[in-house]
Design goal:
The complex is a heterodimer of chains A (389) and B (245). By secondary structure, chain A is mostly helical. Chain A is 70% helix and 2% strand. Chain A contains 15 helices and four strands. In chain A, strands 1-2 form a two-stranded antiparallel sheet. In chain A, strands 3-4 form a two-stranded antiparallel ribbon. In chain A, helix 3 packs parallel to helix 8, helix 3 packs across helix 12 and helix 13 runs antiparallel to helix 14. The longest helix of chain A has 29 residues. Chain B is α/β, with parallel strands linked by helices. Chain B has one domain: Rossmann fold (3-Layer(aba) Sandwich), CATH 3.40.50. Helices cover 36% and strands 26% of the residues of chain B. Chain B has ten helices and ten strands. In chain B, the strands form two sheets. In chain B, strands 6-7-8-3-9-10 form a six-stranded mixed beta sheet, with helices on both faces. A four-stranded antiparallel beta sheet of chain B has the order 2-1-4-5, covered by helices on one side. Chain B starts with a strand and ends with a helix. In chain B, 43% of the residues are buried. The chains are: A mainly alpha (389), B alpha/beta (245). At the A-B interface, helix 9, helix 10 and helix 11 of A face helix 2, helix 3 and helix 4 of B.
Chain lengths: 389, 245
Amino acid sequence: MGKSFIKNHPTLLIFLALLALFTLGVTIMSEAYGTAFISTSFVKTLGKTLCLCLVAIAMDVVWGYAGILSLGHFAFFGLGGYMVGMWLMYERTQEVVLRSLENQVIPPTETEISDAIATQIFGVVGSADFPLIWSFAHSLTLQLILVVAVPGLLALVFGWLAFRSRVTGVYLSILTQAMTLALALYLFQNDSGLRGNNGLSGLQNLPHVTAPQSEISMWFLWASAAALGLGYLFFTMMLTGKFGMVVKGIRDNEQRVRFLGYEVEHYKLFLFTVTAIVAAVAGALYYPQAGIINPAEIMPIASIYLAVWVAIGGRGRLYGAVIGAAFVSLLSTWFTGGQAPDIPLGFYTISWVDWWQVLLGISFVLVTLYAPKGIGGLFDLLKCKEVQK
Amino acid sequence: MSTLLEVSGVSVSFDGFKAINNLSFQIGKAEMRAVIGPNGAGKTTFMDIITGKTKPDEGRVIWGDRSISLLGMSEAKIAQQGVCRKFQKPTVFEDQSVCDNLMMALKRRRSVWDVLKYRPAADIARLEQLADEIGLLGEFNRQSGELSHGQKQWLEIGMLLAQDPKLLLVDEPAAGMTPSEREHTTNLLVEAAKTRAVVVVEHDMEFIRRLNCKVTVLHEGSVLAEGSLDHVTSNQEVIDVYLGR
């Protein structure tokens, strides 16, 4: 990466600098390492927001650059969360079980320990056995590999089938949405092996770690910021140069790119899979901060929100996706968290918990109609003014 | 002169309508050919078959010295063999610069991995030379969406040349051009036909006369007549179905 690369991407440098500044600011103001100006729960909200920004840039790459409106990327995000959640829950439960069995006169056997863990985890869905998919849950390394492998493989197989049949446009959106819905409905079942609608919980408690939540939350914020920075750098480098040109060409005129001799399906499949993996990594960082993951998280509506964030922030530019995801998700937290003042009209009170979604819907429609470049488009206006001067 | 492309006995029908009916066609390695015919004669479908967009119901499409069949290959594979197509409506990537458009077209390896690790530095001189050939060197870094209609047509021709094709399929290159733009286009095509095969689909008789090449007349999906322009225009059948109208 030479000087010219940075010169050609001023936004990359600005973004990384702002991200570093933000992380430093939060650290200084945190309870654990600073002035305790920001509460631990807000640190978690900010950390989670960084993860949402990461999945949003993945969405922007696949939708804004390649023109594939996937409504499945939040499913990959959730799968990443599930994979890391399995280890967290297993290890944590094992810790608790071992502690409770410590004082027994006869030391417990391996099987007894294993049964006790299984009962603890799966009692809630009326089972006391480990399903097959938990075979690797004892190993952090293996589960971390699965964070990448499971969503990556799902995206690869699904994408191969869909792109090979030349499914495009709104049909592809519907197909990905169907995949997401099927996955969520499957996970809702008690015998899915992932605790049905209870999902995985207690993920905020890191096993073998005695540090308080205030510190753990900062660790995850740092990790999320690093992941977002790396993701941003990775996609910027990938989309620079000829690969980015071909990808934009596919968005604008797929058939023409084919007649130039590029196998469009390979490019789409590559992008779909890579962005799915990035989404999964974002999810694996998100859910330990959220503390709980359940199938409702990956219902298609979540993926639709993702598309809304990217549209509001501005498609086809990575910082637009970051702005959209951060802005809308933080605003959503504010409105639905009960902090926004209700508006009493006398005969009716507008409570934002209910009306926020209406507001979001209206702003999505307005952005699509009148500002297709989204919030990121404002920067173009600034640039234009500078040029005129 | 050896044959580059041989289409024989090809038929294709859409919902019972025979768009191409037992069509046979041959072109040599360095030859210019004009294809004319009334609307619905099957000119575009003919190109779709060669480029792999449409699969024929029967017939053969044989390509090159090693006589390989183009049927069953993907559009991209056929393009990699050296078959290039220019559409009727200029289709350049308007969001990207003239340089980017040419760089995408330039004959280099096309796989995802090769494209990811591609570095343009060594090719810039060649791209500038191409831009010069099509008279767009001054617009090298301009968005191609800002170009005039004629300039877009040339850019597209430039993109075809950049691919260094063995066979150029050109659909109505002169449509919507001013007389001087036409002349420039004619020169580009005649120059190209010195080293490769060029098939031009055109309505404009004056333009074809200037190309000064063999003409194939299509009608209802098959070849009605073939020969010099004077030969086919004096053919009574051709006059009846096409020129007479």
